[in-house]
Amino acid sequence: QVQLVESGGGVVQPGGSLRLSCAASGSIFGIYVMGWYRQAPGKQRELVARIISGGSTNYADSVKGRFTISRDNAKNTVNLQMNSLKPEDTAVYYCYAGISWGQGTQVTVSS
What we know:
Layout: E1 4-7, E2 10-12, E3 18-24, E4 33-39, E5 46-52, E6 57-59, E7 67-72, E8 77-82, E9 91-97, E10 100-101, E11 105-109
């Protein structure tokens, strides 16, 4: 089990971009699945994107074509590039790796 720390959240206007990063305390080489969930106020936590160790990815329909997930085994990080952000993307974003979870980072999309 590794410790995860997210960064990169903040406030952005609609149409803007943010890049979230999740740094692991140890090697992620053997971790099969890593990804990002999000939880908006009053809503259930939902999967945003995940990446398998071989490189295949899955995205929520609501973010396809706008978000890109990547992992860097050498740097022990998983990243989420978010473009064309919408107000409905506002949520706390959580990184996960295997059974480990980060503490979350707030993303607010507002004009």
